[in-house]
TrEMBL record:
This is NADH dehydrogenase. Residues 3-333 form the FAD/NAD(P)-binding domain. Keywords: FAD, Flavoprotein, Oxidoreductase. It comes from Gilliamella intestini. Belongs to the NADH dehydrogenase family.
């Protein structure tokens, strides 16, 4: 009997796992591999801020799930995960026709990623834009462009005052918030060169708001301070020790101090697994809705269910869980792949141990961060060299899915498509 392996979620970990299992088992008819995702294509989540600001084209850089499945021997089903029946070994989804469908499995991998955590802050859901997936990134881009176009109309009619600016406030001083803020001035300048000559970055008022005493807590303090300085040099306000207690239509209200007025409010503070994962099918979950796994990445209550990526609560020897990053998801996918093969062959399981290889923050035309080398400590990197490493990480992700030769072709093709797409994003906006 051919085993059915179902993977829910086509993010960094899920799509890599489906591709590897398809190549290993699917092509040899040793198992049926099925990938399920609510979207029809994959965009690398660490670059969603570039989709939101028009730097990256979702059309040029997407990987189509159906095409990837045809080339790597797995089936793709578009649908949203809604429930799990462990007794019958069935996943329940709402498919693209909004129909409830049951998908049987022998081995299940949950890799559905994470969503923004508003920590129950009043008004955040109603007034803020999140950056959870490609659809959210596209909505944010459309909101930004609409605001830019509206502001242009005010300028054209000579109704703008010298102090008038487009106020954008971002809550969350992690990588997403910082990288998004760094791209916004460039986005306005590009908008100005595409027929909106009166638009420039001087018309922006961008704030990054962080509750703790500094941004980017995952980085060494010196590196984080260097990035703070770079943001400030570009006219971006960095507000630390600023706890937001509520959001309203006119801006964010901190625990202390005056309102932080904003025309566009973005929330990137904190992550959690989707709420529906909390105690789903009586599986053990954490306070942030993540499913608790053993070192083998199997859930604590069902060895037929693996969990990888942001939605996995994998405790490490340090006493802390592995972080919700693409780096961790990639490492989990590799161990999960080996453990599924071992499980099918009745061999011992491998244990997942997260390795922190460092963090690099992209700042549009430069980058800064830390690279950690086993046995040699960590190395601070900045400037063009750091930016190349950041870009290389993305290309390595593509290569793991497409292969090196196809990745080179993909890069060349996407550059041509990107040139046309990039200009069209900012022109003819009324």
């Amino acid at each position: 009997m051919i085993k059915k392996i179902v993977i829910i979620g086509g993010g960094a970990g899920g799509l890599e796992l489906a591709t590897d299992l398809g190549d290993k088992l699917g092509k040899r008819n040793q198992a049926e591999i099925t990938l399920i995702d609510k979207n029809s294509y994959h965009i690398w989540k660490p670059l969603l801020h570039e989709v939101a600001t028009g730097v990256l084209s979702e059309q040029a850089d997407k990987i189509d799930y159906t095409t990837q499945g045809q080339q790597h021997a797995f089936q793709f089903i578009q649908g949203a995960f809604t429930d799990l029946n462990r007794e019958e070994k069935q996943v329940i989804i709402n498919n693209s026709n909004n129909e409830s469908v049951s998908v049987p499995y022998d081995i299940l991998v949950v890799a559905i990623g994470s969503t923004s955590n508003d920590f129950g802050t009043p008004g955040v859901k109603e007034h803020c834009i999140f950056l959870d997936d490609q659809n959210a990134a596209i909505r944010l881009r459309e909101t930004l462009i609409a605001k830019f176009a509206s502001f242009c109309s005010i300028i054209d009619e000579n109704e703008a005052k010298d102090e008038d600016k487009i106020r954008i406030a971002i809550v969350g001083g992690g990588a997403t918030g910082v990288e998004l803020a760094s791209e916004l001035p460039h986005m306005v300048e590009t908008f100005g060169t595409c027929g909106r000559n009166k638009m420039c970055s001087d018309l922006l008022d961008v704030s990054v708001i962080e509750a703790t005493d500094r941004i980017l807590p995952a980085l060494p303090e010196k590196t984080a301070l260097g990035i703070t300085k770079t943001l400030q040099q570009r006219g971006i306000h960095v507000l630390t020790n600023t706890m937001i207690t509520k959001a309203q239509s006119d801006g964010f209200y901190p625990k202390e101090g005056d309102i932080i007025s904003a025309d566009i409010m973005i929330w990137t503070a904190g992550v959690k697994a989707p709420d529906y994962l909390k105690d789903i099918a009586r599986l053990e979950s954490s306070r942030s809705n993540q499913l608790v796994v053993k070192p083998t990445l199997q859930t604590t209550r069902d060895d037929n269910i693996f969990v990888i990526g942001d939605c996995a609560y994998a405790m490490q020897d340090s006493g802390r869980a592995s972080p919700a990053t693409a780096q961790a998801a990639h490492q989990m996918a590799k161990i999960c792949y080996e453990n599924i093969i071992n499980k099918l062959n009745n061999k011992p399981m491998k244990l997942f141990k997260y390795t922190d290889n460092g963090t690099i923050i992209s700042l549009h035309d430069t980058a800064q961060g830390v690279v950690k080398i086993a046995g040699k400590g960590e190395m601070n990197v900045k400037g063009f060299f750091a930016l190349m490493i950041h870009r290389l990480l993305y290309r390595m992700h593509q290569a793991s899915l497409l292969g090196i030769v196809k990745t080179i072709r993909f890069v060349k093709a996407s550059k041509e498509m990107y040139k046309n797409k990039f200009a069209s994003i900012f022109t003819h906006q009324d």
